[in-house]
Specification:
Elements: E1 3-9, H1 17-29, E2 35-41, H2 53-56, E3 60-61, E4 67-68, H3 71-78, E5 88-90, H4 91-104, H5 114-127, E6 136-141, H6 151-164, E7 169-176, E8 179-180, E9 185-186, H7 189-201, E10 207-212, H8 218-228, E11 235-239, H9 248-254, H10 257-264, H11 275-285, E12 289-297, H12 307-319, E13 322-330, H13 331-337, H14 339-342, E14 348-351, H15 360-373, E15 377-380, H16 382-396, E16 401-403, E17 412-417, E18 432-440, H17 445-450, E19 454-461, E20 463-465, H18 470-475, E21 479-483, E22 490-494, E23 501-504, H19 519-552
Parallel strand pairs: 1-6, 1-7, 2-5, 2-6, 7-10, 10-11, 12-13, 12-14, 14-15, 15-23, 16-17
Antiparallel strand pairs: 3-4, 8-9, 17-20, 18-19, 18-21, 21-22, 22-23
C-alpha cells in the first residue's frame, strides 16, 4: 500500500508549500522511493487557464495538456515524478464532477451533500495516484488553514487516515514564526493558533515546518512542540534562503526531515545520496561568469507570471557556471523610452509568451533592436509571433503586417488564428495544449542545441504563423528550422547569419530542470555569454592599443 503525506499551510499564504512538497519528493526519490505529487487548490475555477497572471501567476502546462498551478512546475523541476491531470484538482473541478454525476443519476436520487459526496470525490482524487508502482503520494492542500473554501479538503484528508489507517498517513503543517523587531523576539502564538484550528477539524500534525527569518532558539522549538502536541524533533526550522530556492532540500536534510518521514511511515528506504544536488549548489553559489538578460514582457510586475522562464534561465546559468542577472522590463517602457535606452548594457533579449495587445509595440521594437544590433534573441510563443511581425514589416517590407489577435483587418495577417479555433466560444482548455512533436532542419541552431532532429515540446496558444508568407520570408533570409511532422505548422524560426536569433511557438521552459538545463535556454545564454566576452575582449584590445599609442607618443 502506498503511504500518504498531506501538507497544509498556516498563518499566511505564500510560505512555500509547493517548494516544500517538491523538496520532500526529491529527498525521498534520492532514497530510492517512488513518489507522486498532487495539489488541491480551493478556488472555484475549474483550472487556472482563464485566470489573469496578476491573480494567479504562471499557468503551468503538463504533457497531457492540463493547465495547472505553478507549483506543479516545482514538482517537475525537483523530481522525476510523472504528472498528469490527476495531479491538480480545484474546488471547481471537484464540484463539476459531483454535479455531472448527479445529473446522470449516479447518486440514485439521494440528497447530494459536502459530506460524504464532495469529500468522497476528493478522496477518490487522492487514490488515483496510489498505484502499485508508487511508494509515497505527497498531496499539497492549497490556501491557509481557516479559509472557508479549504474546509472540504481538510475534512477529506482527515477521513482519509480513517480509511487507510493512520500508520499509512503523515500530516505536515507549514507555518510561520514572525519576528517582531520592536519587541526583539520571535512569536510562536500564530503557529499555536494555526495548529489549534487544524486540531479542531480533527487533524493532529505529525511534523511542523516553521518558516523563519532567523535561527529558531531551542526554547522556542520546545514551546511550539509542547503547545502543538508534537515531538520536539518534529519541529523543523526552515530559514529563509539568501541565494537560491535550490538550497531548500539541503536545509531540510540538515534538520533530518527525510529521516523523520522514513521512520514515521515505516518506509523501506536507502541511505540518502545527494552529492549531485550538493554539486549543483556549489555551482550556484560560486559562478565563474555573469551575464545580463533582458526579459521584455507584459506581466513583469508579477514575477510569478514568468516563473518557469526565470527558472530556466537560472538552469542554463548553472550548466554554464554563470550567474544570470535578469533585467525585467515592461514592454511599455520600451515604447516610451525607446529600445536603445531600455536595453542598454544587456547581453541578451528574451520575449516570453502572453495574450492581448498591450505592450506588443514595445516587444516588436525590442526585437528589432536585437536583430539589428546582433544581440542574442530568444522568443517564446508570443515572442515568436512578435518576431514574425517585426521581420515582415522591417525586412520583407509588408508595412501593414500584424497578427490577427491584434488587428483582425490587417492587409498582411502573417500570424493568424488556427482553423480549429474559429468557432470556439468557451475559453477554458480550448487552445492548442500539451506536448507535440517537432522536426528540425539539420544544421540549424535549434537542431545543434538539441542534438536531435525530432523533439517534443509543450504548447499553449491559439495563433500560428500564416503559411501563405513562408516563401517571402525565406527569400529574405529567415529559416523555418522547426515544423510539425506534416509541415503545416511552423514551430521554430531562425536567422542563420545572426549570433542567436531563435524563436519557438512552444514553451520550452516547462521542460527545464536545475540539473538538466533546457538545450535552447542553454544555447541562448551561451550566445549571450559569448557576446559579453567579445565586448570585454574588444574593450581590452582598445585599451591596449590606446596604451601603446600613448607610449609611442
Amino acid at each position: 500500500m502506498a503511504k500518504h503525506i498531506f501538507v497544509t499551510g498556516g498563518v499566511v499564504s505564500s510560505l512555500g508549500k509547493g517548494l516544500t512538497c517538491a523538496s520532500i519528493g526529491m529527498l525521498l526519490e534520492h532514497r530510492g522511493l517512488r513518489v507522486r505529487l498532487q495539489k488541491f487548490d480551493p478556488y472555484i475555477n475549474v483550472d487556472p487557464g482563464t485566470m489573469s497572471p496578476y491573480q494567479h501567476g504562471e499557468v503551468y502546462v503538463l504533457e497531457d495538456g492540463s493547465e495547472t498551478d505553478l507549483d506543479l512546475g516545482h514538482y517537475e523541476r525537483f523530481t522525476n515524478a510523472p504528472l498528469s491531470r490527476e495531479c491538480n484538482y480545484t474546488t471547481g473541478k471537484i464540484y463539476l464532477s459531483v454535479i455531472e454525476k448527479e445529473r446522470r443519476g449516479d447518486y440514485l436520487g439521494r440528497t447530494v451533500q459536502v459530506i460524504p459526496h464532495v469529500t468522497d470525490e476528493i478522496k477518490d482524487a487522492v487514490r488515483k495516484l496510489a498505484g502499485d508502482d508508487v511508494d509515497v503520494v505527497i498531496t499539497e492542500i492549497g490556501g491557509t488553514v481557516g479559509d472557508i473554501e479549504g474546509l472540504p479538503f481538510l475534512e477529506a484528508i482527515r477521513q482519509f487516515a480513517l480509511d487507510i489507517g493512520k500508520q499509512n498517513c503523515l500530516y505536515i503543517h507549514l507555518t510561520l514564526i514572525p519576528y517582531l523587531k520592536a519587541a526583539g523576539e520571535a512569536k510562536t502564538k500564530p503557529t499555536q493558533h494555526s495548529v489549534s484550528q487544524l486540531r479542531q477539524i480533527g487533524i493532529q500534525p505529525d511534523i511542523l515546518i516553521c518558516r523563519t527569518e532567523r535561527e529558531m532558539a531551542k526554547d522556542e522549538a520546545e514551546k511550539i512542540a509542547l503547545f502543538c502536541n508534537v515531538e520536539p524533533r518534529a519541529v523543523i526550522e526552515e530559514r529563509d534562503k539568501e541565494f537560491s530556492i535550490y538550497e531548500v532540500p539541503l536545509s531540510l536534510v540538515d534538520n533530518k526531515l527525510d529521516d523523520l518521514i522514513v521512520e514515521k511511515l515505516n518506509l523501506r528506504a536507502k541511505p540518502l545520496e545527494i552529492s549531485d544536488w550538493r554539486g549543483l549548489l556549489q555551482r550556484i553559489l560560486q559562478p565563474a561568469h555573469e551575464v545580463t538578460i533582458a526579459v521584455v514582457g507584459k506581466y513583469i510586475k508579477h514575477r510569478d507570471a514568468y516563473k518557469s522562464v526565470y527558472e530556466s534561465l537560472d538552469h542554463a546559468g548553472f550548466a554554464l557556471s554563470s550567474r544570470v542577472r535578469v533585467r525585467m522590463i515592461e514592454a511599455e517602457e520600451v515604447e516610451s523610452e525607446g529600445a536603445e535606452q531600455a536595453l542598454s548594457g544587456v547581453d541578451g533579449l528574451l520575449v516570453p509568451g502572453g495574450f492581448g495587445h498591450r505592450g506588443i509595440a514595445g516587444k516588436i521594437e525590442a526585437i528589432r533592436h536585437a536583430r539589428e544590433r546582433g544581440i542574442p534573441f530568444f522568443g517564446i510563443c508570443l515572442g515568436l509571433q512578435c518576431a514574425v511581425v517585426e521581420f515582415a514589416r522591417n525586412v520583407v517590407g509588408l508595412e501593414d503586417a500584424n497578427t490577427t489577435e491584434i488587428d483582425g483587418n490587417c492587409r498582411h495577417p502573417v500570424v493568424c488564428l488556427l482553423n480549429d479555433q474559429y468557432h470556439i466560444t468557451h475559453l477554458g482548455g480550448t487552445m492548442r495544449l500539451g506536448s507535440y512533436p517537432c522536426k528540425l532542419v539539420e544544421g540549424s541552431k535549434a537542431s545543434i542545441a538539441y542534438g536531435s532532429r525530432l523533439v517534443h515540446e509543450r504548447h499553449r496558444h491559439r495563433y500560428e504563423f500564416n503559411n501563405q508568407y513562408r516563401q517571402q520570408f525565406t527569400a529574405h533570409g529567415m529559416l523555418f528550422s522547426g515544423s510539425s511532422p506534416d509541415d503545416q505548422l511552423v514551430e521554430v524560426i531562425e536567422l542563420p547569419q545572426h549570433p542567436w536569433f531563435v524563436a519557438v511557438q512552444c514553451h520550452p521552459e516547462f521542460q527545464s530542470k536545475p540539473t538538466k538545463a533546457h538545450p535552447l535556454f542553454r544555447g541562448f545564454v551561451q550566445a549571450s555569454l559569448n557576446r559579453r566576452e567579445g565586448k570585454k575582449n574588444a574593450e581590452a584590445a582598445r585599451g591596449r592599443a590606446a596604451a601603446i599609442s600613448a607610449t609611442r607618443a
